[in-house]
Write a structure and sequence with these properties.
heterodimer, A: mainly alpha, Arc Repressor Mutant, subunit A, Diphtheria Toxin Repressor, domain 2, 2 domains, two-stranded antiparallel sheet, two-stranded antiparallel ribbon, 7 helices, B: mainly alpha, 5 helices, 75% helix, elongated
């Protein structure tokens, strides 16, 4: 997934969590980059009409940005579910974050053919847990 | 800490990405074989039979090369038989039924594999990490497989063009 899509996905998720614009510091923490890098990328996304930025408040995805963010989130969900359900990876969240930049959407679509994903994806993504909500439920049930 | 950079930094990450390659190869291998079996007799011909057979054999070779690299890495891996069973189970239910669909699916599978290896090669090249296998050997194997996928794409595209 390219860098712009990773940013859009993260802005979208932080917006959901905060119920408002995504602050630079929160984005830097979640993306593991410096605040300066975040500001630079937000400027680029703003130029492309994908993000609106308000000084001292933060970034918000536009309608076009949200469409891209939702696609990126779906790709991410596929990766998490693939790691957890096919490769049996316990720490699928950490690994999905590590591998996400290398896995393209077309590759994820291919992997999607062998995992069971619900039609409501990515609406069921749990922003707080940073994981597919259904996967989190499955794991909790399995632990009980 | 995660990072947005497309870079492979450890044996574990490399092994995991190679496992994804194994699955993609298994998907191509399983589908090529199954598709041919499912085609109506009138749609079968020597050209497609040999193309799908070659694709299936080539994917099996790639898979074995990737598995050999994974074995040499200091990382945990799940047995391939588990993946094979899962792929077979998933493909028992879906798949194109006509000739054009079969070729298109084959083309898509090879294009996807090419993109995967291309990105993976970039990610290994962007990293200065030391792996427990020789970096040149990893890159050499991946480049060779990538070229084979590119040739596969051309071959399927030509067959589609000839039949159009």
């Amino acid at each position: 997934m390219n860098t712009a899509d990773q940013y859009l996905k993260t802005i979208f998720l932080v917006q959901k969590l905060e119920d408002g614009p995504a602050a630079t510091g929160d984005l830097a923490d979640r993306l593991g980059v410096s605040p300066a890098s975040v500001n630079e990328m937000i400027g680029k996304l703003e130029d492309r009409g994908l993000v609106a930025h308000e000084k001292y408040k933060g970034a918000t995805v536009t309608d076009d940005g949200e469409a891209r963010a939702r696609e990126a989130l779906q790709t991410y969900c596929i990766l998490e579910r693939f790691l957890a359900n096919v490769l049996d990876v316990d720490d699928y969240r950490a690994e999905a974050r590590q591998l996400e930049p290398v896995i393209d959407e077309t590759v994820a679509d291919r992997l999607d053919m062998i995992i069971d994903r619900e039609p409501q994806c990515p609406d069921c993504f749990d922003a707080d847990a940073d994981a597919c909500g259904l996967l989190v439920e499955d794991r909790v049930e399995a632990d009980d | 800490m995660s990072s947005v950079a497309a870079r492979v930094d450890s044996d574990d990450q490399l092994a995991r990405l190679l496992q994804i390659g194994v699955v993609l190869e298994e998907v191509v291998e399983a589908r090529a074989h199954r598709h041919y079996q499912s085609l109506p007799a009138d749609d079968r011909d020597d050209a497609i039979e040999s193309l799908l057979e070659e694709a299936s054999d080539e994917s099996a070779d790639h898979r074995r090369e990737l598995e050999a690299l994974i074995d040499d890495l200091d990382a945990e891996s799940i047995p391939f038989e588990d993946v094979k069973a899962l792929v077979a189970e998933s493909y028992g239910q879906t798949g194109p039924e006509d000739f054009d669909g079969v070729l298109y699916d084959q083309l898509h599978g090879e294009e996807t594999a090419y993109k995967f290896y291309d990105d993976l090669i970039d990610a290994v090249e962007s990293s200065s990490a030391e792996f427990s296998v020789d970096r040149d050997e990893v890159l050499g194997t991946l480049r060779e497989i990538r070229e084979a996928e590119a040739a596969g794409v051309e071959e399927v595209a030509k067959l589609m063009e000839d039949r159009a």
